[in-house]
């Protein structure tokens, strides 16, 4: 959190008897900012220009709420950092304007640049979700779910496929593009791709819903669900708010992805409860030892995905799966009867055999099959045989 250690602010005094006056303070340490704000408040009784009159306006109240929301976000980042989470949920500079009584001050900080692509995606998602929540308040989503059909058993479908084929169950990803590869499939029709996957023996489907970085959409998820595809559907999204769980469920999702690199333990626990309540299966994704240990300490997790791609650097190492399943971690997973999904860097039957030997019972694969002219044949090529029932 070193980016929060030194900040400056710009203050504007609101006085009915004089024009706005502004000045810029020198940069001050973070631990001194609270004292500075306290001093400002203590001086609100008046100035040399006359008494101050704090008139409450709707704009100021909105900005104050945004400021409070930002402060909560900073606190969450501090808690997350103690758990080894490096991804900040939002820019440390916060909203552009803040209010302290009649004072308005603007934080200025050079730390508002994302450290990596995952942090950039998360910051964008935080803004996107905030806007969507205003358009579709959560009570409207809960109301819509009252008449929604029951979700399909995502975890059960994976277990059934594994028992039927003796090979890792396939979660086939409906994916047009990615930040690391660009456009993967030009002639992209999500429903046709989904149907080809189902024909090829996929147990479940993963549907990208992020539009800015993956060219996905919730419309794709909804279209696949409405087309009669029987495979349970995973909403592949960057979840940063519980609101997204309800929204995904209204769009036909049977499961959601929760990323341990982004979400603190408390958020994971809270979202697991909501998932269970509204009928969603949670695929909890880890990519290193610390994240795996954190998730194994949380009760109620039934499905863990090991991502061989480092989401901060996008580098891929398939040995990551084997490393995280060795020793006591592997024993704990077996004792808890957690089904493990291998993710990223899987292109050949040898890759599938490698992660299966390491202990996975399902794989999530996108690029290596979606880029094939016929995704059904792509699945056969991935497993080295026909896995369709």
UniProtKB/TrEMBL annotation:
Stored HAMAP family: IGPS_B
The protein's name in its UniProt record: indole-3-glycerol-phosphate synthase
GO MF annotation terms: indole-3-glycerol-phosphate synthase activity
GO biological-process terms attached to the record: L-tryptophan biosynthetic process
Keywords, in A-Z order: Amino-acid biosynthesis, Aromatic amino acid biosynthesis, Decarboxylase, Lyase, Tryptophan biosynthesis
Pathway(s) of this molecule: Amino-acid biosynthesis; L-tryptophan biosynthesis; L-tryptophan from chorismate: step 4/5
NCBIfam families per record: PRK00278.1-4, PRK00278.2-4
Record's keyword annotation contains Amino-acid biosynthesis: yes
Ranges of residues in domain Indole-3-glycerol phosphate synthase: 118-381
């Amino acid at each position: 959190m070193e980016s929060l250690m030194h900040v400056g602010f710009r203050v504007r005094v609101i006085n009915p008897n004089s024009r706005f006056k502004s000045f810029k303070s020198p940069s001050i340490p973070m631990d001194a900012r609270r004292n500075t704000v306290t001093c400002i408040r203590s001086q609100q009784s008046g100035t040399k220009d006359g008494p101050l009159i704090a008139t409450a306006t709707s704009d100021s109240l909105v900005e104050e709420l945004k400021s409070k929301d930002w402060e909560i976000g900073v606190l969450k980042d501090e808690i997350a950092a103690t758990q080894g989470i490096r991804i900040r949920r939002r820019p440390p500079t916060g909203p552009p304007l803040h209010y302290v009584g009649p004072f308005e001050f603007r934080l200025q900080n050079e730390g508002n640049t994302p450290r990596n692509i995952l942090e950039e995606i998360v910051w964008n998602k935080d803004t996107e979700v905030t806007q969507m929540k205003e358009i579709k308040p959560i009570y409207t989503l809960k109301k819509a779910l009252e008449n929604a059909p029951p979700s399909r058993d995502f975890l059960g479908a994976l277990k059934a496929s594994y028992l039927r084929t003796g090979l890792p169950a396939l979660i086939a990803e409906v994916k047009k593009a990615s930040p690391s590869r660009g456009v993967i499939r030009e002639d992209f029709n999500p429903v046709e791709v989904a149907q080809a996957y189902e024909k090829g023996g996929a147990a479940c489907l993963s549907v990208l819903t992020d539009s800015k970085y993956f060219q996905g959409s919730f419309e794709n998820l909804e279209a696949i669900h409405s087309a009669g595809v029987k495979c349970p559907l995973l909403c592949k999204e960057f979840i940063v708010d519980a609101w997204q769980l309800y929204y995904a469920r209204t769009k036909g999702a049977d499961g959601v992805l929760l990323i341990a690199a982004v979400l603190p333990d408390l958020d994971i626990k809270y979202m697991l409860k909501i998932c269970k309540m509204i009928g969603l299966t949670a695929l909890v994704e880890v990519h290193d030892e610390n994240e795996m240990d954190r998730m194994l300490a949380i009760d109620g997790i039934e499905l863990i995905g090991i991502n061989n791609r480092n989401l901060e650097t996008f580098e891929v190492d398939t040995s990551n799966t084997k490393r995280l399943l060795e020793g006591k971690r592997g024993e704990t997973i077996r004792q808890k009867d957690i089904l493990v999904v291998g993710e990223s860097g899987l292109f050949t039957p040898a890759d599938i055999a490698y992660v299966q030997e390491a202990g996975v019972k399902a794989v999530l694969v996108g690029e290596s099959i979606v880029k094939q002219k016929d995704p059904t044949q792509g699945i056969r090529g991935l497993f080295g045989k026909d896995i369709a029932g």
